[in-house]
Amino acid sequence: MIEGLEKYEPMDTDDFVKAKVRFVRGKNPTVVTIEYPFVRFYMEESKAPKAENLLRSIRRDSIQDVYGLVAIYQGTSALEDVMVDGVSLKTVVEEVE
């Protein structure tokens, strides 16, 4: 959950993400498009194509809840896992095999 946007690095916390604002709609913005730095998720090469196909099919099915687990510290972030209905994508791919 995003708690706010700041132009400069916050001094009162280590929990923040450096990201780029790509688009702001309106003078009093309620819609902001953000480019996050965590866009890649690495997994075993033999399972990656299955995971990609699975995520494509899930994106067409809006019933499933998909989100990323991101580690954040002092502006640095890393995508640690992708979750599908609360289960790791790695586990979901193994179950499909």
Query: Biggest sheet: strands side by side, in what order?
Result: 3-4-5
Q: If helices are DSSP runs of H or I spanning 4 or more residues, what is the number of helices? A: 2
N-to-C SSE series? EEHEEEH
Largest sheet: 3 strands, antiparallel
Low-confidence runs (pLDDT<50, min 5 residues)? none
What best-fitting shape do the alpha-carbon axes yield?
globular
State the distance separating the first and last CA atoms.
33 Å
Helix content: 10-25%
Overall pLDDT score: 86
Q: How big is the Rg?
A: 16 Å
Percentage beta strand: 25-35%
Secondary structure: elements and pairs:
Elements: E1 20-25, E2 31-35, H1 48-60, E3 66-73, E4 76-84, E5 87-88, H2 89-96
Antiparallel strand pairs: 1-2, 3-4, 4-5
Describe, in plain words, how this protein is organized in 3D.
It contains two helices and five strands; from the N terminus they run ββαβββα. It is an alpha+beta fold. It has one domain. The strands form two sheets. A three-stranded antiparallel beta sheet has the order 3-4-5. The protein has a two-stranded antiparallel sheet with strand order 1-2. The model has no long low-confidence stretch (mean pLDDT 86).
